[in-house]
Amino acid sequence: SQLSEFTYVHDGENRIYFLYLPDNIAPGSPLVFVLHGYTSTAAGIIDSYGMNAIADANGFAVCYPQGTQDLTGTEFWNIEFPLESVDDVGFLSNLAGDLQNVYDLDENCTYVCGMSNGGMMSYYLGCERPDVFKAFASVTGTITTNFISNCQGNIPVPFLQIHGTS
Hints:
This protein is of the alpha/beta class.
């Protein structure tokens, strides 16, 4: 298996992501994005979330992208927060397309999950880009009123919402 750090340029900004490819990855395999929470980092969640072991067992690629810093200098994903202009929807959608092409991953099996603010971003991607992200899961994140109206009339997208500790 291989975990590598890459830089991806979006809107003139260098964005960091980590990509995990199991040894048994086959052409046409799924791709799963795992999004960190507010104040967290992509590097910080790789070991604690355990997704690489699940990818090894099931033969899919895992992408851990890094958010940017908000106006207070805290790592985050921009879900239409006031005063923020980072295009995370464009970054994640374009990155998904590039990874699908470069690694021959299935564009119909690209998914996203996240914790807290990463879960909120997962909801946002499900609303804004159901053509790219075919299902999503959110742990402790919720859908917010600042973009819920954008979901009206969109392609239905399966999702899993997890709250609690049991």
